[in-house]
Amino acid sequence: MAIEKTFSIIKPDAVERGLIAEILKMITDTGLKVKAMKLIHMDRPQAEGFYAVHKERPFFNELVEYMISGPVVVSCLEGENAIEKYRTLMGSTNPADAAEGTIRAAYGIDIQNNSCHGSDGPDTAKIEVAYFFNDDELVG
Ligand code: ADP
Ligand code: MG
């Protein structure tokens, strides 16, 4: 299987509750490696740009408000089958539907405040990593 990169956000609800270390441990326990990481507080244009694919969805404004409500941890993760592996670790968008052992089952509050983001495919992974990191910020 191919070595891939994916993009992760530990979202405001999780950072605010002091869950950075717990979520990072779940990530690294799967064997995924952190290639780049930073704590940031997004501004509105940055969050709107990141979620541009959702701008017609009814929850877009609420989603942007939430994502700028506090700091987040953005990272680039790498490993075998990284995109699908991390999506599986996150669990379903709605924590109420998320499988046991997933980040969202453990820590998600509701369908919006669901603690984490992960890229949903190779094209979005590339775009999302590049949205937050320059090439020279990735180790190795
Ligand atoms: P995922 O993060 O699982 O890929 P989506 O890409 O569909 O899910 O949605 C992006 C984010 O928007 C979700 O993670 C969640 O924070 C928020 N969201 C999704 N659906 C809803 C909804 N029905 N109401 C409020 N927020 C939502
Ligand atoms: Mg998505």
TrEMBL record:
It comes from the Bacteria. One of its GO terms (molecular function) is ATP binding. Residues 3-140 form the Nucleoside diphosphate kinase-like domain. It catalyses: a 2'-deoxyribonucleoside 5'-diphosphate + ATP = a 2'-deoxyribonucleoside 5'-triphosphate + ADP; a ribonucleoside 5'-diphosphate + ATP = a ribonucleoside 5'-triphosphate + ADP. Its cofactor is Mg(2+). SMART domains: NDK. The keyword Metal-binding applies. The active site is at H117. It is found in: Cytoplasm. GO terms for cellular component: cytoplasm. Keywords: ATP-binding, Cytoplasm, Kinase, Magnesium, Metal-binding, Nucleotide metabolism, Nucleotide-binding, Phosphoprotein, Transferase. Belongs to the NDK family. Major role in the synthesis of nucleoside triphosphates other than ATP. The ATP gamma phosphate is transferred to the NDP beta phosphate via a ping-pong mechanism, using a phosphorylated active-site intermediate. This is Nucleoside diphosphate kinase. It comes from Pseudodesulfovibrio piezophilus (strain DSM 21447 / JCM 15486 / C1TLV30) (Desulfovibrio piezophilus).
